[in-house]
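Subject: Sanity check before I submit

Could someone independently write out the structure tokens for this chain? I want to compare against mine line by line before I put it in a report. The sequence has 187 residues.
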Amino acid sequence: MASKESSPQSQPINLAQIPIPQLTQIKNQLTSELQHLTNSFTQLRTAQAKFRDCITSIRDGIEKDEGKKAVKGGLGKRTRADDMVRTNTGTPILVPLTPSLYVPGKLASTETVLVDIGTGFYVEKTPPAAREFYTSKVEDLGKSLKDLEGIVQGKQGNLNAVEDVLRQKMMNESASGSKDPKGGGEE
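---
Independent answer below. Compare away.
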């Protein structure tokens, strides 16, 4: 009873028992799925790079590294916050309208930034909160990419197995076809 209730994906299938036309369909389906997953992987990588660019833009555009800054009284440890200085309001910047079109603008505020949280919604956040938001997005996408990479590798393994069996069956069929006395060539 348990075997009837389990999903068909959890039971191994003997590929050698499947006819060539069905193997070809399975191969085509796996190829299509693999292509879709690969495209998804590329899109996630692109999104992750854009979030990293946002972090860089906040860090380099709003907060600039002052370099080697002396610690008060020469005591204590320096932190990254000690090395940061705010960019002045009114600083000229380039504002992206599209990925390839920028227009000149001036920085209106250094206290808050607008963060795109998806589907056209923006939220005002402080620069550290915005960096934290984008950092969490980069980490989440990293986990998703790792999971997707495992799925892609599994599908690729399945595709390779189907291609190997299909190739073997076609070689066996062509070999048996040339030895077949019904072929009319050999008597």
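---
OP: Matches mine. For the report I'm noting this point. The two ends are 54 Å apart (CA to CA).
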